[in-house]
Amino acid sequence: MKISTKATNRSKNAEVEARAARTKSRDPRWEEEFQFMVDEPPTNDKIHIEAFSTSSRIGLLHPKEYLRYVTISLADVVNNRRINERYHPIDSKNGQIQIEMQWRTS
Asked: Running along the chain, 106 residues long, what does each successive block of 10 average in pLDDT?
């Protein structure tokens, strides 16, 4: 299983991928940090987070299986300086994605 994150900004796109620490679990945890550098507060931008399942069976071809996604407004992160929320993924009957984000200025 892996997670793909795409942050869309007016001037640039950033995309990162992370592999799950526990691939054979129904409750994978990533515990990874990513930094996106921006020139101004992204109050009109969103971050889109997708989860996929991939098979690594030898000799078999299995495409990525799309599991779920969430889209989060970055205005909440900027205004509150931090969020730590559980989101119910779109197009999913069960499961949650917990996201913690911080807005830091230098």
From this structure: 52 57 64 79 85 61 67 91 88 79 88
